[in-house]
Amino acid sequence: MRATLTTGWLLVWLVVGACGGDTRAPLEIEALDVVAPLPGSRVAAAYMTLSNTTTEPIVIERFTSPEFESVELHETRIEDGVARMHALTRLEIPPESSIVLESGGMHLMLVSPLDTGGTDRTIALHFHYDDAGVVIASADMRPRLAGAPAY
Amino acid sequence: MVSRGSKFSARGARVAAGALMGLATAAGLVLILGGRPPAEPLRATVFPSPIPLPEFALSDADGRPFTRRSFEDRWSLVFFGFTNCPDICPATLQQLALARRRMAQALPADRLPEILFISVDPERDTAEAIAAYTGAFGDGVRAARGDLAELDKLTRSLGVYHARTPSEEGGYTVEHSAAVIVIDDQAEYRAVFGPPHDVEAIAHDTALIMAAR
User: Fold this and answer.
1) For residue range A78-126, what is the model confidence (pLDDT) as tens digits?
2) 3-class SS of residue A106
3) B117-165 pLDDT, tens per residue?
4) Is-contact A109 B86, C-beta < 8 A?
């Protein structure tokens, strides 16, 4: 799965790196998996691992995507056999820690695709955090089922 | 006029056919179990006595009536969900499709259980939407929908919970039971799988329950 990052703090990072400091990005996004909406559905899902490489907490205040009307952070909880979906308003990643967004747990719900052109395209996700800028990660959207048509 | 002998023959033929189907299922079950003899269910809760379904009136994805009788003649694995559910619903249907594919390695097509998706969001889940949605999961997957009063006749009898909850964005989502319900070919509630689901366990236990009938 291809995933790329663009950051608002890139310049700072390069300066620090040139001075021989830590060259890791403060917020790393790995294993980004964007699953296309099924036919008849208007929602896609995105899973990933988010890592805070710094010694301070990172708080992601909101998520957006130019390809979807809105992006919501949800957590699925199975309580007494009932699937309950809780909307989360922010995501705090503790210092030097990782949080996994995965099926059956926390995930991004991508609502109402703005282009119904199918699954064969790249989706960009924007992570807005700590008023410090935006990290952009992108990945090729995949169908949930092999050979399944998209919305 | 039907002679006594021909009555016995017809009855005998039915018994023999039933026995053969049972043997075929049992043989298939041994294959599903990897050559080991049938054992206890891995995950399913099996009821000691089947629970008959009540009468209800829903529609299938083609707009045809979907009633209690629609469960007859074929076993069903039933999941209640909605098409705008991003995670649990498609994941569970995918698991059920994979379990059915696993069972298809050992059982003939006419003995495979049908996968049934019943919408708990009939306001947004039109017939066209549920048809397109379930069509993505391959053969043997059907869908049904209907008004909430009729839906509740079925869900209450199965102990399936569903409720609309408002979302911050002004819309709503639907909380619902994540169980997979096993209905036999007599329209009786036989067993239930609670979450989290496991493909191998669903294939194993469903075949086991079917063979035990």
Assistant:
1) 888 888 888 898 999 999 999 999 998 999 999 999 976 666 789 999 9
2) strand
3) 999 999 999 999 999 999 999 889 999 999 999 999 999 999 999 999 8
4) yes
**How much is the ipTM here?**
0.72
Identify whether the C-beta of residue B160 lies closer than 8 Å to the C-beta of residue B20.
no
pTM: 0.80
Contact A36/A143 with Cβ under 8 angstroms? yes
Q: Which residues of chain B from 74 to 133 reach within 8 Å of chain A, CB to CB? A: 83-88, 90-91, 94, 97, 125, 128-133
- Cβ–Cβ under 8 Å, residues B95 and B115: no
CA–CA distances in Å: residue A73 to residues A109, A145, B99: 6, 23, 30
Cα–Cα–Cα angle for A125, A127, A132, rounded to 5 degrees: 145
Backbone angles phi, psi at B88, to 5 degrees: -65, -45
Q: In three state form, how does the secondary structure of chain B look?
A: CCCHHHHHHHHHHHHHHHHHHHHHHHHHHHHHCCCCCCCCCCCCEEEEEEEECCCCEEEECCCCEEEHHHHECCCEEEEEECCCCCCHHHHHHHHHHHHHHHHHCCCCHHHCCEEEEEECCCCCCCHHHHHHHHHCCCCCEEEEECCHHHHHHHHHHHCCCEEEEECCCCCEEEEEECCEEEECCECEEEEEECCCCCHHHHHHHHHHHHHCC
Measure B78 CA to nearest chain A CA, in Å.
Answer: 15
CB contact under 8 A, B83 and A41: yes
